[in-house]
Amino acid sequence: MKCDKCGRENNETAVYCKSCGAALKDKENLIVRMNARLNFLAVTMGLIVFIIVLFIASVLFSGLVTSKAVPAAVYILFVLVVSVFVGSILPGILGSKTVDDGYINGGFLSLVVLVLAGIIAAFIFLAFMGVASTLASVFGPAGSLLGSGTSGAVSSLNSTSSASGGDVLNMILNLVELIASLVLILVSGGIGGALGVLIKDQFN
Ligand SMILES: [Zn+2]
């Protein structure tokens, strides 16, 4: 950035001017500064690695869920964390200068993954709702039973209308678990990106 006092061009991260020592004011807000450090091409390449690792990890760890050793939600979270972590290493290596850049690029990759996962989950949810309501309208009460039986999402939706104290506690616990899972995925992306920078530094 340019010094207001002497006009000398300084490093983007510099706090004081290297020429006259004046304090450099940051005119850009946080979003603009973060955006300048993002490398979209490197993140896209990392997303391709993420998808490949996602498929491999899904197959590799599928035994966990079929043997009922862990609940399906834990299995999905574990596979996502591993895939985001490995996928974020590439933007760390290819698109980040400093460890901070690694956190930003890796974190951005996990954010993209979370948005995509949210869209897919919403589509699945809406599709099940559609199936359930169609069955209900065709078969009447028996159909609605059948419909809600096919989807946990719909049956849990029905139960919320008659929520007792225990159900509310369960909903809060589910919400806490969901937020903790989202944070875990975000953090694994950031750490993966930072690790990528450290790996790159080893070879430089
Ligand atoms: Zn200056």
How would you explain this protein's 3D organization?
The protein has helices at residues 30-36, 40-60, 62-66, 72-95, 99-139, 141-150, 152-160, 165-203. With 204 residues, it is mainly α. The protein has 2 domains: 1-29; 37-203, no CATH class. Helix 4 runs antiparallel to helix 5. It is elongated and about 80 Å long. The protein starts with 29 loop residues before the first helix and ends with a helix.
What is shown here, in short?
The protein is mostly helical. The chain has helices spanning 30-36, 40-60, 62-66, 72-95, 99-139, 141-150, 152-160, 165-203.
Defining traits:
single chain, 204 residues, mainly alpha, elongated, binds zinc ion
Would you spell out the secondary-structure blueprint of this structure?
Elements lengths: L29 H7 L3 H21 L1 H5 L5 H24 L3 H41 L1 H10 L1 H9 L4 H39 L1
Helix pairs in contact: 2-4, 2-5, 4-5, 4-8, 5-6, 5-8, 6-7
The structure holds zinc ion.
The description of the largest β-sheet is: none
Count the domains: 2
**Helical stretch tally:** 8
Total number of beta strands:
0
Return the string of H and E elements. HHHHHHHH
Q: Mean pLDDT, rounded to whole units?
A: 85
SS-derived structural category = mainly alpha
Taken as a percent bin, the fraction of beta residues is: under 5%
Helix content: over 70%
Bound molecules: zinc ion
Low-confidence stretches: 153-160
Radius of gyration: 24 Å
Distance between the termini: 27 Å
* Principal-axis shape: elongated
